[in-house]
Specification:
This protein has 150 residues and is an alpha+beta fold. It contains four helices and seven strands, in the order βββααβαβαββ.
Length: 150
């Protein structure tokens, strides 16, 4: 694929949105990740405040990865994930990047995440610290967690 990857941080330094554009400047792919504010707040009600604070400052939550169907199988998702990881590594306190694939995404996306260095685990308790505090949260969704050290 020829084209560009553009980064935007609209909310602040703890939020990242990367957009991939084709030659006509049409958006054909995107990845979004951020500090896990809602998860840290929920965890704070269940675990020590320091553990919730570590989750917030030391991790980033990969929320969305999307590539237009006609642009798939061209390594665009891999490029987006690699660029996002590079940018998160530049954040001094961030050590871990993680996310969740619900059951309808696992078949399509798991290979992409594995190919870019993520590890898949079956429960939040299997995530490394500080994200493993999420094992205390109620999770009724079916799917798989994934993570990568930064």
């Amino acid at each position: 694929m020829t084209g560009t990857l553009r980064a935007r941080a609209r909310v602040g330094p703890a939020w990242l949105l990367l957009l991939a554009r084709d030659q006509r400047r049409q958006i054909v792919g995107a990845v979004s990740s951020h500090a896990p504010y809602a998860l840290a707040e929920a965890a704070g009600a269940l675990v020590a405040p320091a553990a919730a604070a570590s989750l917030l400052t030391q991790t980033r939550l990969l929320e969305h990865l999307a590539v237009a169907p006609e642009h798939r199988r061209r390594s665009l998702a891999r490029r987006l994930l690699q660029e996002a990881a590079t940018r998160h590594r530049a954040e001094p306190e961030v050590r871990l990047w993680f996310g969740f694939l619900d059951e309808r995404e696992v078949d399509q996306a798991a290979d992409v995440y594995r190919a870019t260095g993520f590890r898949l685990v079956s429960s939040a308790g299997d995530l490394p610290a500080p994200a493993n505090v999420l094992r205390h949260a109620l999770n009724r969704r079916q799917g798989q967690w994934f993570w990568q050290e930064l």
